Automatic annotation (TrEMBL):
<dbReference type="GO" id="GO:0000166">
    <property type="term" value="F:nucleotide binding"/>
</dbReference>
<dbReference type="InterPro" id="IPR039039">
    <property type="entry name" value="RAI1-like_fam"/>
</dbReference>
<dbReference type="GO" id="GO:0034353">
    <property type="term" value="F:mRNA 5'-diphosphatase activity"/>
</dbReference>
<keyword id="KW-0539">Nucleus</keyword>
<feature type="domain" description="RAI1-like">
    <location>
        <begin position="110"/>
        <end position="382"/>
    </location>
</feature>
<dbReference type="GO" id="GO:0000956">
    <property type="term" value="P:nuclear-transcribed mRNA catabolic process"/>
</dbReference>
<dbReference type="GO" id="GO:0003723">
    <property type="term" value="F:RNA binding"/>
</dbReference>
<comment type="function">
    <text>Decapping enzyme for NAD-capped RNAs: specifically hydrolyzes the nicotinamide adenine dinucleotide (NAD) cap from a subset of RNAs by removing the entire NAD moiety from the 5'-end of an NAD-capped RNA.</text>
</comment>
<keyword id="KW-0547">Nucleotide-binding</keyword>
<dbReference type="GO" id="GO:0004518">
    <property type="term" value="F:nuclease activity"/>
</dbReference>
<dbReference type="GO" id="GO:0005634">
    <property type="term" value="C:nucleus"/>
</dbReference>
<keyword id="KW-0540">Nuclease</keyword>
<dbReference type="Pfam" id="PF08652">
    <property type="entry name" value="RAI1"/>
</dbReference>
<keyword id="KW-0479">Metal-binding</keyword>
<keyword id="KW-0378">Hydrolase</keyword>
<dbReference type="GO" id="GO:0110155">
    <property type="term" value="P:NAD-cap decapping"/>
</dbReference>
<dbReference type="InterPro" id="IPR013961">
    <property type="entry name" value="RAI1"/>
</dbReference>
């Protein structure tokens, strides 16, 4: 039997396991109801072998499309702006990506050596309430609801909530969110303010850590054109509204904040600041996996990383990654075949978990929403992959 045939058998078995999911017990995962709270162990979720590496990066979603995009200026009363100001990469950056000439004089002279902490003292981060707001998302949902598949459950969410759920097997932190079953049986995901975790520069108290977080914003400003005549693009946000299919029962409808657009390729480009990767470093591999998830969720997206000096925070190199490049880097056979925790940060395991956990959440939420007066639930996935779903009293 060839390796390819073995992979096909593994995939077939996984699909069968997911299809046979039931409320009470799934492949050794037990569930119980305690004082109105449902507790389900998902530790034994079905997945491919942790050493499995495919030639092609898996797709988290099928039939994925952008249904709209819009910009929002913070403080503007107009929430839905049809005349979107797209954050465009500077022409020399687009040319740099196209040519793959990493020693281009235009890049070296314009960007390399730039201090990515410049402007830190004057920077005012956005309030978290804006980052977690679902106002634009729900308005988009109301506009496009009729076009959604009525035979499927659609999860409506901000992209970073989806990423947090998918990352659960690869970190030691719990994820807690509020999920509301709407009258049409679709499910809105929103922030759980009581369990909201620190989110980069918006919450970090350590000055050094805040400065490191700031380098990402500085890099975005450095590589993109100003979005208005004043030359200042602070606090103008650009969003993509995306619909995609998870499986025969589940769709996603989500809002993603976009860093930039490459006008040469008409591709959304995520911009990240980082020190040079050491693939033996757990943090770096986790960071790469998160980048893979973030870009893979969009129908047409890639990544541009600005590598900075770890001491001076000066930009040393720009490097572009397609989704396949990120996958190849994080799922290198020499890494996934070594003993290690967190499923060795294998994107194939992330894909399996994603399809499994949304199926489990859907089944239980729809069932519980019929059995309790509440339509909103606190959904928690802890570090042991134990899922708990607790109704929220309508009076609270």
């Amino acid at each position: 039997m060839t390796a390819s045939e073995k992979d096909d058998i593994t995939v077939d078995y996984l699909a069968k396991s997911l299809n046979e999911l039931r409320l009470d017990k799934t492949n050794g995962n037990s569930s119980s109801l305690k004082k109105g709270k449902l507790v389900v162990s998902c530790k034994n979720f079905p997945h491919a072998h942790v050493g499995r590496v495919t030639e092609k990066s898996p797709s988290l979603l099928t039939d994925c499309e952008e249904v709209h995009n819009c910009s929002y200026v913070v403080g503007d009363s107009k929430m839905w702006d049809a005349t979107s100001n797209k954050p465009k990469l500077k022409p020399e950056v687009c040319d740099y990506i196209k040519s793959s000439n990493w020693k281009s004089p235009a890049i070296r002279d314009s960007f390399v050596g730039f201090d990515l902490t410049k402007g830190y003292d004057e920077y005012v981060p956005l309030p978290r309430d804006i980052l977690n707001s679902v106002d634009i998302l729900t308005e988009a949902y109301e506009r496009y609801e009729k076009a959604l598949n009525k035979d499927k459950t659609t999860f409506i969410s901000l992209r970073h909530h989806l990423i947090d759920i998918i990352m659960c097997p690869f970190q030691n932190e719990p994820v807690s969110l509020i999920m509301t079953v709407l009258p049409d049986k679709n499910i809105l995901i929103s922030v759980d303010k009581s369990k909201s975790k620190p989110n980069g520069i918006h919450d970090v108290a350590n000055p050094h850590a805040r400065k490191i977080c700031y380098t990402g914003f500085a890099l975005e400003d450095l590589l993109t054109e100003p979005t208005n005549s004043s030359g200042v693009s602070d606090h103008e946000l650009f969003y993509s509204i995306v619909r995609g299919s998870v499986d025969n029962d589940i769709d996603l409808f989500f809002q993603a904040e976009i860093d930039s657009i490459n006008t040469t390729t008409d591709t959304y480009t995520e911009i990240k600041s980082s020190v040079h990767f050491r693939m033996s470093n757990t943090y770096h591999r986790r960071k790469l996996l998160r980048m893979w998830i973030q870009t893979t969720l969009l129908p047409k997206s890639d990544l541009l990383i600005g590598f900075r000096n770890c001491y001076s925070n000066e930009l040393e190199q720009l490097k572009a990654y397609k989704i396949q490049d990120i996958y190849n880097k994080v799922s290198n056979r020499s890494l996934v075949n070594k003993p290690g925790k967190f499923y060795r940060f294998n994107p194939n395991i992330a894909n399996d978990w994603f399809h499994y956990i949304f199926k489990v959440i859907r089944i239980h939420l729809l069932s519980m929403s019929q059995e309790t007066p509440s339509k909103s639930f606190k959904v928690l996935i802890d570090a042991n992959l134990t899922l708990s779903i607790q109704p929220i009293s309508p009076s609270t």
